[in-house]
Amino acid sequence: MENPLVAVITSSAVESRVRKRGFRSISQLLQPFATHSVSVRDPSTGQLVSANVTIDFNDLNKEGHLLTLSVLPHVLFEVLRSKSQLNDALDSFEAALRKWAEPAEQETFRTYLACIFVVAGGEEKPMSELSRLVQEQHAQQHSSGDSKGLTPSHCGPPRWTTPNTLKHYFLLHDAAEDDEARTTAVFNEMCSTYGMDYCQMLRIGDGVVSEDLPDVWRDSDELDAILNAGLRRALQHAAASAIAHQTLERKPSATSVSTISPSYAVVQSSCIPSTALNGYPGNGKSLSIGEHAISAADREALKNVTLSFQPESVEMQSRRLADLAFLFGLYSFAQSHYRSVKKDFEHSQAWLYHAAASEMAAVALYLSDNKVSPKQFPKHYFDAALENQLTYSGKYTCVVRCALNASMVLSKLSMFKEAATLLSTASSLDNDMCVAVTQAHASRNFEEAKMTRKAAFYRILAGNRFMKAGLKQNALECYSRALQKYANTNWDSIEDHLSTVLSADTSDKSLAVACAIRLLRESAIQTETNHAAFLDNFVETLTRFGVSSETDPLALPVPLLDVQATRVICGERPQSDDVPLNKSIAWIDIERAAYHTLAGSEGMQPFDGQELLPTLKFLPEESKKMKSVVHAVDERLRIHVAQKQWPLLDFRIARKNQPQVFCGQAVILSVEVENIGKELVNALCLATDGLDCVSVSLVDTRGKKLTVTVRAPALPGEESDIGLVFYYRGENLTYRQWQTVVSLRPVPLFESSAVLLDEVHGIVAINMRNVMPANDAALARCEVLRIRLVSQNINDKGCWTEVDHANVSLQPMKVGSQVQLDCEQSCNACIRISVPSGVKNEDYGVDGVSWWLSPMSVDPPSWPAALPNASRIVEDSQHPFDNYYQLAIFWKASVVDNDGHRSYTKFRLCQIPLEVLVTNVDHGKRSADLTLRYRPKVTEAVTSLTQLPPENRQQWWIDRELVRSVIKYGESHVFRFVISVCQPSVYDVAGSQLVLEAIFDDADVKVFKVC
């Protein structure tokens, strides 16, 4: 608890003599002998009360109360870090907080009750030096401001309990250096000047050294080491903050603009300063304490006002008397005064003062009557004190001390649950270290209350706060204790988290290895990625501690493979599935169509002779049969190793997912096929569910490159998914497939509609429109190339098929006109459709049903026409038409960004940013050393552009020709460049000039194409 505090002021000669004896200050020399038994008469009862009082000495030249914000947190950090056990660290934290925290305005604890002046007998003028020390103390205490002339820079100014401080005078006599006669003469002069009762001679150096004496200064030496470490840490932090602040000041700042209105500024300038108002509430008790008439709104506004009482006010004098009684063991007398002054502070709405008085009233009540029962104890005193401290922004030192005092008192009353609950309310503090301490105390109280699960939970919270504050050792101990509760209790997520942290960070070899092994247990909720990470963590843990199987045999909880029962399945190489899981496509129908296409006409069936296990479900008619169930051997899946090798092709599709697709656009996919197996492939087919929108053609006659053209939906809407199955057959009649999905989300660009004007003569008007807005971010020009009449009918199998030669003709009403539509433009074209009678189909070619409006530079895709909509054909009629005609419009569009133009006459070069994303998906989980290299087209010296043909001239440049990076498995890296061009053109950035080389762990070098 709190102890009386006495200041010590010494001369330089005393400091020199004490330092020679191995002491930092004379207060360190006196502290082990500062506990005494005193008897004080209780003013209320007149009885003598005996108590053991420990006096705290502080040498003002070297010691004091540490600065609350800049020094004390770093010293408390070192206190927690210096102890190996968490309980010892918490106890040392509480003792250090009481010793070094600055005094609060709301109380007189940790203020100096008296002052001791020490001079040496061997000084030249000891009496003059003593007089000088007394004057320095008087000047410091009665100065107008906070004077720090006596204290070091890392301490706050000393505060004194009373205006007339008690003084005592010491004369230090060193038997090895000072003259006995002169010291005696000086001491007699001191006694005649200051009085016999206030003077004392302190002798050192005349004793006999004994080896049996205990080291009573060991604790003091440990505190000095902790204090010095904390001061060094605070100095480093202050230096780093100063450097950062200077860096910010050098940067140019924008001109500040005032956002305060003139009327508000006038009101604020006319208000009375709060510092002038703070002195008035102290007079409330003697003048008008019961005559306040304040509305509820005014009371709410007063909550934000910090009240301050003068030290000589009636309330603070009562508080000082209660504190003095508490320091010397008069707890009953102190408790009565605490209760009285608490009511005065409550009436004045000085809530921080009220909180401090409520806290000490509860502590004094417990110390005055140890037999008080938990029901009789006013726990609400602590609740109100802590709530007011948090609500009205009390110092964190006061909040933590209040929480620890409440925990101490309530735990001794066996109110462990209440103590833990109250400690948990301090978690709103903006100080991770203090919150961690309170939560650690709360976990101990929950443990005492037999609430082990909640205790473990609060240990995890405390560990998280310790880890956030940088106290890893304390955090790991909290995690280790919490793991004992969560182990083998089906709390797998928490157990895995704690085990991962402990195995990676703890220095305890046995604990780290045990946690690493625990992560490898069987778990149904962990993914394959997590299991792989746990295995890597296990290997890293063994490597970190140098564990070998010979010296430290380990039993891993992994399944042991039965080599005799193991069968090898030869399948595809490991690769990620190209089909998203959320795509609902009827794959079984597509696969069935592909299979019948390749294997339907073969005499040998590839799966002939293999057993098919049907899925049969039946429900017995009689309920008695359900009572006895016989479980057979689980043979839902049987695996056999095939004798023949199966073919294996590798399919690579470039730019399958395009950023933007327009309605009706022909999306061209370039598919590269490579035989990476050992079997010859003699048949390949493509099956799809997009029968009317997919066409395929061979680019390479050897079948190594295909072009798949997919027509986007004609109407905008939701995402359209088209499934593609590449089904192929080997020469030994073995089959394999590869499937993928093409997802299209089209936006409208070109729309068309037809209106029948004259049914007798077959005149039709076609309206065509470019629907892209003119104010859009892109500009588009649509050009109509061809209008074709498509005839479809139902064949013998009941399927719609296109008729290549129909007995119809299509004649435009206006020949030779081109149709080009810019944004938001439209056009109408009239055509005449005639059906001559008595003319055979072969007399009319394809050109007879096509109107070419513009010459074709490339061959149009040969995809089938869109399937007719049956609902539109039948309508209300019960007999559908035998023939169905559609007008197919073939168009092209030029789309450019509408972000302005660049003049190369004003700016010679145009710079374009480029990002290259590289992801390591190596199946061996190896790290890759990447090198991205730029190879220029022109390497020799050129004096004129006429020396080289245009195709070999330098087209684009890059700011960095060589970049490197190391990427671990599963990670990605983005290479950023700036490309410079000198003329408008289309540039092939993903060509042969950018080369990516990867060197894996086993020195395997691979070259990849950047695309």
Q: What can be said about this structure in brief?
A:
By secondary structure, this protein is an alpha+beta fold.
Report what the structure shows.
Residues 137-146 have a biased composition (Polar residues). It is a single chain. With 1011 residues, the protein is of the alpha+beta class. Among the domains are: 5-84 and 110-207 and 218-232, no CATH class; 487-559; 587-599 and 642-744, Cadherins (Immunoglobulin-like), CATH 2.60.40.60; 750-897, no CATH class; 910-1009, Immunoglobulin-like, CATH 2.60.40. 32% of the residues lie in helices and 23% in strands. The strands form nine sheets. It has a five-stranded parallel sheet with strand order 4-1-5-6-7. Strands 19, 20, 22, 24 and 25 form a five-stranded antiparallel sheet that branches. Helix 20 (492-505) packs antiparallel against helix 21 (509-518). It starts with a strand and ends with a strand.
Runs in which pLDDT lies below 50 for 5 or more consecutive residues are: 253-284, 286-297, 838-846, 871-879
Query: How large is the count of helical segments?
Result: 24
Helical/strand content category: alpha+beta
Quaternary structure classification:
single chain
Global geometry:
elongated
List the keywords:
1011 residues; alpha+beta; Immunoglobulin-like; five-stranded parallel β-sheet; five-stranded antiparallel β-sheet; 24 helices; 32% helix; elongated; Foie-gras_1 domain-containing protein
